[in-house]
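We were asked to recover a plausible sequence for a given structure. The inputs and outputs are reproduced exactly as logged, with field labels preserved.

PROBLEM: sequence recovery
POSITIONS: 316
GIVEN STRUCTURE:
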């Protein structure tokens, strides 16, 4: 079981070191506890998905110490700066276009062209983000389908096996997840209600669309614009045609293809998830006529990998 430690300065520094080393750490925010990992590290991000036990990759919120730090990963416009100035640090997440040269793992953003960023107000989260000095991906620290944890004990009960350390900062004052505001399009859209209300935001930047499920839900996994390669994909084949690239998996990958990348030579699904979007991206840019993808077992993270490959194939 993970150690649950009071979030004193020394423990926060240890948590920052663990995050630097690629481990997962649970920490309090003003909304709920987060399951944090280095957002620039594909393997750490894959470990988050693995720990959550999700059948598909939902894009994760990227936590930063300041708006300046957020501007290195996302493109802010005047509306974004206005609401950030008003509500950060605090329980508001902004969905914005990814910055050029954004260092955040493509897997953390589920391959989207947008990125969700937030500067939390909780003093422990803030101190941790300052100490790490890197973007931290952090979904709520519960297993998929379970309620979000608002106390360190909740996290220990559900994810104690997979986190290196749980920083105990007492109960989360807000208790529900942050408001998610999508400012990547022309009309601002409220994707998830939270402590910062639609009315407050409208007073600041004008009329909002509200995602109420009535008109075309942008629910996780159904997000418009999910990463779709330009190149057609053929699933479950290990024999690329001339001109095709191979996205291989495991030790049985055939040799001799000019353009081949292996998701994991040892057949490790966490490693495969970590490589998925980066490899797809590379092959998509290689100027090939198609991408043949080898079968990935339909188990654990393999289900999320296959889900994403099927979507990518259907989009192409
Ligand atoms: O309060 C919170 O936001 C907590 C704490 C830990 O900060 N985190 C949290 O993360 O609730 P999570 O992963 O449980 O929820 C993230 C939400 C999901 O609904 C996801 O679909 C949405 O944010 N999201 C993330 N990136 C997105 C993007 N690029 N476009 C649209 N929605 C996005
Ligand atoms: Mg959640």
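RECOVERED SEQUENCE:
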């Amino acid at each position: 079981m993970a150690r649950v430690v009071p979030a004193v300065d020394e423990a926060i520094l240890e948590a920052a070191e663990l995050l630097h080393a690629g481990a997962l750490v649970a920490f309090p925010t003003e909304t709920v506890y987060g399951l944090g990992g280095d957002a620039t590290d594909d393997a750490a991000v894959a470990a988050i998905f693995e720990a959550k036990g999700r059948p598909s990759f939902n894009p994760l919120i990227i936590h930063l110490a300041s708006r300046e730090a957020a501007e290195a990963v996302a493109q802010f416009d005047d509306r974004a700066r206005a609401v950030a100035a008003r509500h950060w640090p605090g329980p508001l997440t902004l969905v914005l276009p990814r910055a050029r040269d954004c260092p955040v793992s493509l897997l953390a953003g589920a391959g989207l062209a947008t990125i969700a960023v937030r500067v939390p107000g909780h003093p422990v989260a803030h101190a941790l983000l300052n100490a790490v000095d890197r973007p931290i991906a952090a979904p709520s620290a519960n297993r998929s389908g379970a309620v979000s944890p608002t106390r360190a004990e909740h996290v220990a009960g559900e994810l104690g096996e997979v986190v290196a350390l749980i920083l105990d900062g007492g109960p989360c004052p807000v208790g529900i997840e942050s408001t998610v505001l999508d400012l990547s399009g022309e009309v601002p859209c409220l994707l998830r209600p939270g402590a910062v209300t639609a009315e407050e935001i409208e007073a600041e930047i004008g009329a909002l669309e509200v995602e109420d499920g009535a008109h075309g839900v942008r629910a996780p996994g159904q997000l418009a614009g999910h990463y779709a390669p330009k190149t057609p994909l053929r699933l479950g084949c290990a024999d690329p045609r001339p001109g095709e690239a191979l996205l291989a998996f495991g030790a049985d990958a055939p040799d001799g293809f000019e353009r081949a990348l292996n998701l994991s030579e040892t057949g490790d699904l966490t490693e495969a998830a970590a490589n998925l979007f980066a490899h797809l991206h590379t092959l998509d840019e290689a100027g090939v006529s198609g991408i043949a993808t080898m079968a990935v077992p339909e188990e654990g993270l393999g289900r999320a990998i296959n889900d994403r490959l099927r979507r990518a194939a259907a989009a192409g």
